Amino acid sequence: MSENCAKVMEAKGKTVEEAILNGLTQMGLGIDQVDVEILQEGKGFLGIGRSATVRLIKKSLPAGEAENFLNELFKKMGISAAAHAEEKDDRLDINIDGDSTGVLIGRRGETLDSLQYLTSLVVNKNAKTYKRIFLDTENYRKKREETLINLANRIAEKVVKTGRRVVLEPMNPYERRILHATLHDHPLVSTVSEGEEPYRRVIIKKKKQGNINQ
Hints:
Elements: E1 8-13, H1 16-27, E2 34-42, E3 51-58, H2 62-77, E4 81-88, E5 91-98, H3 102-105, H4 110-124, E6 132-137, H5 140-162, E7 166-167, H6 173-182, E8 189-194, E9 201-206
Parallel strand pairs: 5-6
Antiparallel strand pairs: 1-3, 2-3, 4-5, 7-9, 8-9
Helix pairs in contact: 2-4, 5-6
């Protein structure tokens, strides 16, 4: 979404409105994407010789900030990938395309989570309103969600059969929420999280007889 244009430009016209329009045209931006400073507004005699000069300053938009940060990071890492961001209300969806995206996922998505966290810090550093960041590549998040849902259901069946609780491997808050949500309405098992980050785990255990169907 980021534009390859000057961040600051001075433009002239017969009126302030015309000067702004000239500047926006040259920058390839809309009026909502810039801050305007009026540098000079000459009235002229009887409307003759009127002129205006304005300075247009490109706003630092969340999508552009995220793309610039990630693409510069990929360049320094020597990774062939590009980030594309799209704003959706209070959320910023970022998808990464390229030939080297596998390395950006990492073990159980840990690298992707770290990139998402760093991007959130950059985008929200001086922001007036908080933007949630959702970073994905190769549709990894959706695939991981499906894997976790299947895992939760399989473990639940095992717990019901054996009566023994199962302690899963440490997971991040996003993944733990998926497990809790999947088994929230299960009639025979319940879930709890125990431990401290980053080693917090989900435990799936059989409900006590008195808690069933209550």
